[in-house]
């Protein structure tokens, strides 16, 4: 057990596979002015963590991974009116959450509703706000729109399916197994394509009477990019927001003209929560939907902090559904919610 002056954490010193993630003991982080020392209950495991670890997104080494967590404020200064010890909080896009403690700027913290566990907050905030900006920021989803969602059984994909369905859009989803297909249908997908058994672009064209979809949400990247373009209608939008299969190779932009004046965007959550007002608005929308039962998140795996390498390996195998979390010592458990439908 770590002493009060020290904490457990996960670090990597060189980029590589999951095996480079090592449990270590570090001094507690120093709380700077305008920040709070937070005891982390749970950290979310996200694909961006694997990009940092592998070197796909270069970082300064050594590096403490993790960009999403929830916990309780342990210490806060006198310069932080409105916040106090014991407040339950969550945050995203701040590295170093694979640890027992973190020093977090107050402007990046969001409060948790009383009925929401720190586990569910850590499992939902980043992916929930990602799904929210995809459905309500990159484009404004309208009733009657048709959307294709890749990796729909994953954490972000499942939340996005629910949000799109709640707007009245027709949702076509892809996943890899019949078990995942059943789960995605429960979340609200109108059609599910098993990409392991059929060409998703051809099937999408067939499902839309040859027209194609208004938008493709693609977090897979290299292996789905060409098919995603082929599934779009004239003037359709390809929203490429991840690259689980690797980055898309260089692409000749004039191809977009010949394919029907298509649009392609490569957005990031950071740009949609760059100011405090946007962060609070999107996080509040996600938390409110969870509380009301309009949104549900499946926790697909809970791992002790020391098992971060196994969590990464499981995530990259594409064998998981829902969201993976690391427990840093928190005792709160998931508060189940049911998907009751309705707008988000």
Notable characteristics:
344 residues, alpha/beta, Quinone Oxidoreductase, Chain A, domain 1, Rossmann fold, 2 domains, 7-stranded mixed beta sheet, 6-stranded parallel beta sheet, 15 strands, 29% helix, globular, disordered C terminus
Task: Describe the secondary-structure layout.
Elements: E1 6-11, E2 22-27, E3 35-45, H1 47-54, E4 68-76, E5 88-92, E6 101-105, E7 110-111, H2 118-138, E8 146-149, H3 155-166, E9 170-175, H4 178-187, E10 191-194, H5 200-207, E11 213-218, H6 225-230, E12 232-240, H7 254-258, E13 263-265, H8 269-272, H9 276-292, E14 299-304, H10 308-316, E15 323-327
Parallel strand pairs: 8-9, 8-11, 9-10, 11-12, 12-13, 14-15
Antiparallel strand pairs: 1-2, 3-4, 3-6, 3-15, 4-5, 5-7
Helix pairs in contact: 2-3, 2-9
Describe the structure.
The structure is a single chain. The protein has 344 residues and is an alpha/beta fold. Strands 3, 4, 5, 6, 7, 14 and 15 form a 7-stranded mixed sheet that branches. Strands 10-9-8-11-12-13 form a 6-stranded parallel sheet, with helices on both faces. The chain is built from 10 helices and 15 strands. Strand 9 (170-175), helix 4 (178-187) and strand 10 (191-194) form a beta-alpha-beta unit. The N and C termini lie far apart (43 Å). It has helices at residues 47-54, 118-138, 155-166, 178-187, 200-207, 225-230, 254-258, 269-272, 276-292, 308-316; strands at residues 6-11, 22-27, 35-45, 68-76, 88-92, 101-105, 110-111, 146-149, 170-175, 191-194, 213-218, 232-240, 263-265, 299-304, 323-327. The chain folds into 2 domains: 6-125 and 274-327, Quinone Oxidoreductase, Chain A, domain 1 (Alpha-Beta Complex), CATH 3.90.180; 142-266, 3-Layer(aba) Sandwich (Rossmann fold), CATH 3.40.50. Helix 2 packs across helix 3. The longest helix is centred in the middle third of the chain and has 21 residues, at 118-138. Residues 331-343 have low confidence and may be disordered.
